[in-house]
Amino acid sequence: MKIQNPKPIDWHFAARAEQLQSSFIREILKITQQPEIISFAGGLPSPATFPVDEMKAAFDKVLTNNGKVALQYGPTDGYLPLRQWVADSLSLDNAKIAPEQVLMVSGSQQALDLLGKVLIDEGSRVLVETPSYLGALQAFSVYQPEFVSVETDEHGLVPKSIDPVADGARLLYALPNFQNPTGRTLSVERRLELVETCERHGLPLIEDDPYGALSYNGEPLPKMLTMNPDGVIYMGSFSKVLTPGIRLGYVVAPAPLVRRLELAKQAADLHTSQLTQMVVHEVVKDGFLQGHIPTIRTLYGNQCQAMLDAMTEFFPAGVSWTKPEGGMFIWVTLPKHIDAMKLLDQAIANKVAFVPGAPFYANDPATNTLRLSFVTVPPERIREGIAILGKLIAALV
Questions:
Q1: Which residue from 17, 110, 203, 245 puts its CA 20 to 30 A from 7's CA?
Q2: Predicted structure pTM score
Q3: How far apart are the first and last CA of the chain?
């Protein structure tokens, strides 16, 4: 039976729920589902890189040979053979990583949430790049920190700018490789200086590295984790090298922190899918990525160059942009009087989409910036979309 004329509930949400904000990018993606839109908005990997046949074969093998284990609850810290694979892949002779330092998570976004739960209190000082990854700002903001923006330049984060703001800070969050949103890469010298600076202040450093394998020249820079395994929290993901649909990532951290993260994860979801972890291990354990990743690098490198060439041809004087050496993004700076939010309205009316830069800033947003992603758009459509965008910008210069 159904209650007749039930009284509507007057919902009273928790304070943290009241201040939750939708991701600007996710809202734009709703618009870009229209096939006629040339979308440079989403940070989505190209479906052309998804190893469908290998994933299908791995699912079949795991379910045939070990299905009852794969379909059962699993340990919170993750499937041990995959944790061992992660540890081995990150270890160097002078910096060994143990599987006990690895926690498997349901995508990097869960790692950010767990780190926020464990490390951030209301009002805690959290240091972030200028600009920074929107997903991290969104995840950390639930715990109501005080965001402090750390200086960056065309070469990325400036380590010396940490000294005046480090005291009392809970963490520094950084993406050193082909950063989202700017595409910038931190040099080896700056990485070492950054690690030393954080060590001197006793400041935990989060090294978020979803794009590190996607260097166009195939020569990734050293990980800061290996420079100080006791002070660096490393985040990795299978989303950009296999497929995002599996929602599988990992955190590598000192044992005391991993244990706290594990307890927080128990409260969140008990464990990440055992089936997914076993399938991914089946795919990667015999070296599949060594042959697969170069195909991704080549595709993305070619499409990046197509966009850079088109920008050189169609963008007017007064516009500048980064020239990434890997990853998925180009960062554009417009003349100061142009508001990228207003430009987006015009662009969408002309069937082109991008992400304005303002949401990527924790403080003092630069409204004349925007992010372009090129990896899901073929070269001819890249050229067409950039030509349209260039015409719209030229009318505003």
A1: 17
A2: 0.94
A3: 65
